[in-house]
Design brief:
The protein has about 350 residues and is of the alpha+beta class. The chain has a domain of about 160 residues. It is about 15% helix and about 45% strand. The chain is built from 5 helices and 22 strands. Strands 1, 2, 3, 20, 21 and 22 form a 6-stranded mixed sheet that branches. Strands 4, 5, 6 and 9 form a 4-stranded antiparallel sheet that branches.
Length: about 350
């Protein structure tokens, strides 16, 4: 199939999904795990439970914004929102990386259905993969050539790209281009810059500005190998406040940035202690998740840590082994919005056979 046909097919497919979501009828029974002859009443009950989780805001309705609240009844919708519009903070509290995350036991209790187990996954509509292809060391600079792939189930996705590079005392935001699913990007850094460096890539579907994905790539630049994400800080965004909790004592923070597809800002620190620092997160008028980068030093080691707001992709709830041990398990797929961005959501529900 010619590339233009693939792009057209994918664009049309996404548009059909979005229209079905807007009609509030996007739920689809994907499969029963074990038995074919499943009672239709059970399947319909689980379908309604999955819709309830996405269409109701829970009790109290502000349980997402208030880190001290544990919901009495669970629901992930934004209060007063349209169909399948989820709350950025309720979603973030589903991610175990967040300091204020709910445990599955708390969610299970708040569902108030002791015979039902569930699992929820939320992720961008398409994937962004970043690979470092080549490095050219020059006299004064080093050039890094990255390959960026955007695809859905292996099918290339035509997108606009906006990229940032962050290192110690360095911030670059001049990398924009369009891509038919694969592009090469050259990043030039002065050899005076201290790394490791972090490449942030936002990718927006050309036919719908509300379909946005992202990824990051930490790489060596005049430095040792970057440590894994979460080595030095635990970053917890909630109610447009970022809490940066120190993993080690003696950490010294340098700068913090908030990035979206179209905008960026340096964060203002509003308080700090020997264990953490707190920052304001701007409200950007942009159909984009906000990626937050915090830089600092642990003794003589420079680091960059990052998180995304809302904190996706995420998968939480009953573990896979626990679900597959049940006799009835169903999965329902939806298209949802969070802060005007479109995501894919799957909910698994299961219980014992009567």
């Amino acid at each position: 199939m010619p590339a233009i046909s693939v792009d057209t097919f994918f664009a049309c497919s996404l548009m059909v999904i979005v229209v079905l979501s807007a009609m509030a009828s996007a739920s689809k029974l994907l499969y029963p795990y074990i038995n074919r002859g499943v009672d239709e009443n059970v399947a319909e009950r689980y379908r309604e439970i999955s819709k309830y989780l996405l269409l109701n805001d829970g009790t109290p309705s502000n349980w997402g914004q208030n880190s001290q609240l544990i919901p009495e009844t669970i629901g992930f919708a934004k209060t007063g929102s349209s169909s399948y519009d989820l709350d950025v903070d309720k979603v973030s509290r589903l991610n175990s990386e967040n300091l204020y995350a709910l445990s599955y036991a708390q969610m299970f209790t708040a569902l108030k259905m002791p015979d039902v187990s569930f699992r929820i996954e939320i992720k961008p509509i398409f994937e962004v993969d970043i690979n470092l292809a080549r490095t050219y060391v020059l006299v004064n600079d080093t050039v890094y050539q990255f390959e960026i792939l955007t695809q859905k189930h292996g099918v290339p996705v035509q997108v606009e790209l906006n990229c940032y590079v962050i290192a110690e005392n360095y911030f670059g935001a001049d990398y924009t281009c369009t891509s038919n699913g694969r592009t090469c990007l050259n990043i030039t850094l002065s050899n005076d810059v201290t790394g490791p460096a972090l490449l942030v890539v936002f990718s927006r579907f050309v036919s719908n500005a509300k379909i946005v994905s992202f990824n990051t790539y930490a790489f060596v630049h005049n430095s040792a190998e970057p440590k894994p994400k979460g080595t030095f800080l635990r970053l917890s965004p909630l109610n447009y406040i970022l809490t940066a909790s120190f993993i080690y004592s003696g950490i010294s923070l340098s700068r913090a940035y908030a990035l979206t597809f179209n905008y960026n800002s340096t964060l203002t620190q509003i308080s700090n202690s020997s264990q953490s620092a707190v920052y304001d997160i701007p409200h950007f008028l942009d159909s984009s998740p906000t990626l937050i980068v915090v830089t600092g030093w642990n003794s003589t080691v420079f680091f960059t840590e990052w998180t995304i707001y809302p904190q996706i992709p995420l998968q939480t709830g009953a573990n896979s082994a626990g679900l597959t041990a049940l006799s009835n398990v169903f999965a329902y797929s939806y298209i949802v919005t969070i802060n005007s961005v479109i995501y894919e959501c799957t909910i698994w529900l299961g219980g014992p056979r009567d």
